[in-house]
Design brief:
Layout (H helix, E strand, L loop, with lengths): L1 H15 L8 H23 L5 H4 L3 H23 L13 H16 L6 H6 L3 H22 L8 H20 L8 H26 L3
């Protein structure tokens, strides 16, 4: 009798408990965007915008330097939020579109560059600053975003973390482009791409370890 009463009491107490707050993916996404924006603002406050930014953005290649990573971030972040639902199928194929544009731009530039000049165009003059800035700007959003996603129910933790890393790294690259003076696609596709890849890898590693059930 007492066992039955105890079980019934437990069921009743559980039923009386308030439902856990609904996980708002839009709020998590906004927090990630906010952290990226704060980092970009801090960078630009200390280093400044490129002096010819307004004029430079009228050039399609310079505009692409910001637009391509921004497009990646705009696709990857909602996809990451969707993975918190086990039954969701994020349209990952959309990521191929900005990547294809970057590859096409890279190959077209390489085809029009003398062979002897290609290594110099790829190396540029600010590799260390570029990689350091993109990586540093993306770390906090990756860590915080992945930690917040632990409240979700993703069945693909590595993918979720990778998408958070991709969104953070691409957003950081788009912001850093407002400071960067090197508009050659051989430079920015290479090094922005590597910076974004590093952020994606960090996110995947954190997701694999933090988001497992």
């Amino acid at each position: 009798m007492s066992h039955r009463q105890t079980t019934e009491d437990l069921i009743a107490s559980l039923a009386a408990m308030p439902a856990p707050p609904r996980l708002r993916m839009s709020r998590i996404a906004l927090q990630i965007v906010g952290l990226v924006a704060i980092g970009i603002f801090a960078l630009l406050f200390t280093t400044g915008l490129r002096p010819d930014l307004a004029e430079a953005l009228t050039t399609p290649i310079t505009l692409a330097k910001t637009a391509i990573p921004l497009s990646l971030a705009a696709i990857a972040l909602p996809a990451a939020m969707l993975t918190a639902r086990p039954d969701a199928h994020p349209p990952l194929w959309l990521l191929a579109l900005p990547i294809a544009v970057a590859v096409a731009l890279y190959l077209a530039t390489m085809a029009g560059t003398p062979v002897s000049m290609i290594p110099q165009r790829i190396i540029g003059v600010s590799i260390a600053t570029c990689l350091t800035s993109i990586t540093a700007l993306s770390l906090t959003p990756i860590i915080v975003g992945t930690a917040l996603m632990r409240r979700g129910a993703t069945t693909r933790p590595t993918l979720t973390g990778a998408l958070i890393g991709l969104a953070s790294g691409a957003g950081a690259a788009a912001g850093y482009a407002l400071h960067c003076l090197d508009d050659n696609p051989l430079f920015f596709v290479t090094w922005y791409g590597i910076g974004i890849a590093i952020a994606t890898a960090v996110g995947a590693i954190l997701g694999r370890h933090w988001l497992r059930w």
